[in-house]
Structure formats: C-alpha cells, structure tokens
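Lecture notes, part 5. Sequence design as translation. It can be helpful to think of inverse folding as translation between two languages: the language of shapes and the language of residues. The source text, in structure tokens, appears below.
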C-alpha cells in the first residue's frame, strides 16, 4: 500500500513539472510518438490504429522522453 502511495506522489510531482504519459490507445499511429512493435489483424478497427500499449511513452512538455511501444492494426 505504501509503495502505491509513493508512486502516485512521484507521478503527481512529475506532472506538475510537465512530465506526462503519451495517450495513444485507440488513437492513430504516429511514428513521432509511437514505436510499432507488431502489426496485427483487428476486426472493427481502422487501419493504423494503436490497439495495445506494450510500454508507456512519456513526454516533457512538448519533447518526447521515450516513445510508446505499441501494437498497430493492419
């Protein structure tokens, strides 16, 4: 329990300084923000849409710290 509280506290501090996760699930694939790990068949989903996030990506204000590693629909 204590570990979760510390993680949440650190996340809040980072967000206050402009560090945040890249929101990418169910969004169009963008190679500027995402690194495609795998391209998969996905029914009912438009082509080139992020269908799974394997590793969260992070930004500092408008600068990419680490791209999101994702699965993309065909």
């Amino acid at each position: 329990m204590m570990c979760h509280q510390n993680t949440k506290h650190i996340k809040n501090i980072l967000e206050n300084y402009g560090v945040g996760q890249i929101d990418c699930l169910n969004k169009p694939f963008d190679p500027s923000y995402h690194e495609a790990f795998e391209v998969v068949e996905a029914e009912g989903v438009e082509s080139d849409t992020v269908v799974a996030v394997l590793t969260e990506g992070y930004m500092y204000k408008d600068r990419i710290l680490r791209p999101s590693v994702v699965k993309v629909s065909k």
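The translated text above is only one of many valid answers, since several sequences can fold into similar shapes. Strands lie at 19-21, 34-40, 50-55, 58-60, 63-66, 68-73.
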